[in-house]
Amino acid sequence: MKTAKILTVIFLLATMAMAGSHTKDFKNKGGNDFKGSLPKELKLTSAQTRQLEEMRKAREKDTRFEREKLQRAKQDLRDELFKANPSLTSIEIYKSDIIDLQRKQLDNMAESVLELKKVLTPEQLEILKNRQGKNFGRQQRGDSSRGSQKQSSQKGKKSR
């Protein structure tokens, strides 16, 4: 029983550490790539660009606040886990808070995509869908070359 709890704690910490390392590079980009090469790739009109920027600004404050709340909840969970005598009740509360915040992020992502579909043409949506690929729904963080490095290293592992 103790071994299972220890393994669960180690798994949670490893997962949180991996998630935390990505947020350092996020630099509050709003989770989209509508400032880089994507507008040119999609051939956005000035009206579309303006609409997308308005959508981003409308969500930016809320998403930043929710992201900060999630980071605090994860830190609170880490702190509780490393106490000499962690409270199982507190751990369950932090886990529940984290799940609720992640669910809210997922809801916001779905709403954003539905709003995006109202602005983009079917052709533009197809380009976006193909560009997102397997990373759909994941926030874009830091250097985009990291994703391609990870994919190429995974391909190397599969061939071994």
Note down, in words, how this protein is organized.
- Helix content is 76%, strand content 0%.
- It is built from six helices and no strands.
- The two termini are 36 Å apart.
**Element-by-element helix/strand order:** HHHHHH
Class per helix and strand makeup? mainly alpha
- Give the averaged pLDDT, no decimals: 74
Number of helices: 6
Q: What does the largest sheet look like?
A: none
Gross morphology is elongated
Distance between the termini: 36 Å
Q: Using the CA coordinates, give the radius of gyration.
A: 19 Å
The portion of residues forming beta strands comes to under 5%
Task: Kindly state the percentage of residues in helix.
Answer: over 70%
The number of distinct β-strands equals 0
pLDDT < 50 stretches: 11-31, 140-155
What's the short story on this structure?
The chain has 160 residues and is mostly helical. The chain has 6 helices and no strands. 76% of the residues lie in helices and 0% in strands.
Topology readout:
Elements: H1 2-23, H2 38-42, H3 46-81, H4 88-119, H5 122-132, H6 145-159
Features:
single chain, elongated, mainly alpha, 160 residues, 76% helix
